[in-house]
Amino acid sequence: MTGRTGILRAVAPDGDKPRPVAWLAPEGGGVEWTTDPGAVTPAGPVTPVMLPWVAR
């Protein structure tokens, strides 16, 4: 565990790796990084405001 926090951008392939990885970016912008999707934990509950594409 690195203690890094960021915004989950995608869970997608990374080159020729056999499993998808989680792509994250710092909240204020910057260099993205990857990690195992199982290492990602939510910072808090997801609310409708956080999902603007969901019809209300």
What general outline do the C-alpha atoms trace? Answer: globular
How many beta strands in the DSSP annotation? 3
| Assembly category | single chain
What spatial order of strands do you see in the largest sheet?
1-2-3
First-residue to last-residue Cα separation: 36 Å
Low-pLDDT stretches are: none
**C-alpha-based Rg, rounded:** 13 Å
The helicity comes to under 10%
Q: Give the percentage of residues in beta strands.
A: 25-35%
Q: What order do the helices and strands follow? A: EEE
Count of DSSP helices? 0
Question: Can I get a quick summary?
Answer:
With 56 residues, the chain is an all-beta fold. The protein has strands at residues 7-12, 21-25, 33-35. The protein is globular.
Question: How would you explain this protein's 3D organization?
Answer:
The protein has 56 residues and is mostly beta strands. The protein has one domain. It has no helices and 3 strands. The protein has strands at residues 7-12, 21-25, 33-35. The protein has a 3-stranded antiparallel beta sheet with strand order 1-2-3, with no helix packed on it. The radius of gyration is 13 Å and the shape is globular. The mean pLDDT is 84.
Secondary-structure map with pairings?
Elements: E1 7-12, E2 21-25, E3 33-35
Antiparallel strand pairs: 1-2, 2-3
Spell out the key features of this protein.
single chain; 56 residues; three-stranded antiparallel sheet
